[in-house]
Amino acid sequence: MQSYGGRSRGKGPFLSLGRLLLNIALVKTDVLIADKKSLQRSADLLLSGEIVAIPTETVYGLAAIGTQPQAVLKIFSAKGRPSTDPLILHLPSPDLNEAMDSGILSKSIPREAFKLALAFWPGPLTMILPRGSKVPDEVTSGLDTVAVRFPSHPVTQELLQLVKLPLAAPSANRFGRISPTDASSVMEELGGVIPLILDGGPCCTGLESTVLSFLPPEPSILRPGMITSEEIGKITGKSPPIHSQTITKKQSMVSPGMMESHYAPQTPLYLSEHAISKSQSGIEFIHYHSPNILLESNHHILAVNAKPETAARNLYRYLRLADSRKAKAIVVEPIPESPWAIAIRDRLQRASVGTARYVNDRWVLTPKTRH
Ligand code: TXA
Ligand code: MG
Q1: What is the pLDDT of residue 6?
Q2: Between 200 and which of 51, 155, 162, 237 could a Cys-Cys bridge form, CB atoms 3.0 to 4.6 Å apart?
Q3: Is the alpha carbon torsion for 264, 288, 234, 171 positive or negative?
Q4: Is the CB of 200 under 6 A from ligand 1?
């Protein structure tokens, strides 16, 4: 067991104004490898109204029992997340009928949702469906829909079996930052703020779930992920359009995760307009796959095997690593076409502040023009 107490970001004279305003008491954060004992401790903490970071196949989540409003509120304070941004409920069973009977979903669920649950659960598909009477406003931010998914990570499946209730869980990062894909990244984000991180190893998908809305006029994807529109279309008969274009703060009630600046490192990130074949000190470079240049320590490769799944799995890990180097910029190579490119490019677009080009022996970084 690893145990971390106060960290400079959150302790004593270093307590940031933000944290002070959020009125978060400093706690000792335990990191426990998932086993029978730590799973039981997590379940007990959750059932007593606490929040616990848990592994899922996509990214780590910050969980509370989804039917306990006071516990759910702790998620928002720990993350510094606005209460207008609704949470996903992780269901204890993939059977939508059970979710309807227990008041999590309303009785009017579209047929396509049943088919999709059968096809993709357990797995990284979140469906936004009419909400049942047992879901508190704190979870849905007052919307009459609720986001649900049944995750495939064996640790979280066991935890759900122990608590037998849905777990509300957003990604376990401070609001607007990069989602964590291993326990030490959760520690970086929320150490000193939450009591327990359940360590289930690195996440195998690495990008957040696909979010599919059933709101009229037609089903649409609000956040692209590793389950693609085409795969969904094969089950429902029509590939849903992707409505993940960036939206303004005012419109953010539709799906706040779509806000333009999201998933962002602290170091300004620029999208290269061409393959990266030149280096420059002071810049961290993220290549898609092995380049034909001598690699120095400021170069990182997303997918040595050139597979898009590997690139997705490594994306947040390398963004975090590059960010930790305190460079003046991070430059990322274009992501080649593949069924998953839309999801990877979506995250990079939101993380970026502009574009980069190598001209006349140096990298030229051009900020985005804001509307
Ligand atoms: O893979 C994932 O989905 C991870 C793991 C932990 O499950 N969770 C995650 O949660 O990424 P979060 O809160 O970071 O993203 C959930 C997204 C947000 O963009 C939120 O606005 C949207 O889903 N959302 C949740 N409920 C919604 C609703 N009723 N209507 C529209 N959007 C909703
Ligand atoms: Mg998130």
Answers
A1: 33
A2: 155
A3: negative
A4: no
Cβ(61) – ligand 1 distance below 6 Å: yes
Residue type, 141: S
Inter-residue contact 212 to 128 (CB < 8 Å) = yes
By most ligand atoms within 8 Å of CB, the mutation choice from 81, 171, 259 for ligand 1 is 171
User: Does residue 71 lie in a domain region?
Assistant: yes
How many domains does one find in the chain? Answer: 2
Span 272-321, pLDDT tens digits: 999 999 999 999 999 999 887 777 899 999 999 999 999 999 999 999 99
How far CA 46 is from CA of 53, 77, 151, 155, 169, in Å, comes to 10, 16, 18, 15, 12
**CATH number assigned to the domain comprising residue 177:** 3.90.870.10
Kindly state the tokens that stand for 22: 């959020």
User: Which ligand 1 atom minimizes the distance to the CA of 147?
Assistant: 26
138 Cα to the center of ligand 2, angstroms: 16
Please give the average per-residue pLDDT across 78-94, as a whole number: 96
Ramachandran bin of 177, using left for φ above 0, alpha for ψ from -120 to 50, beta for the remaining angles: beta
- Convert the pLDDT of each residue in 188-238 to its tens digit: 999 999 999 999 999 999 999 999 999 988 999 999 999 999 999 999 999
Which residues form the domain of 304? 269-367
- Single out the residue in 167, 190, 207 at which a domain terminates: 207
In a domain, 254, yes or no: no
pLDDT at 92 over 70: yes
| Domain boundary residue, one of 207, 230, 248 | 207
Are 28 and 177 in a shared domain? yes
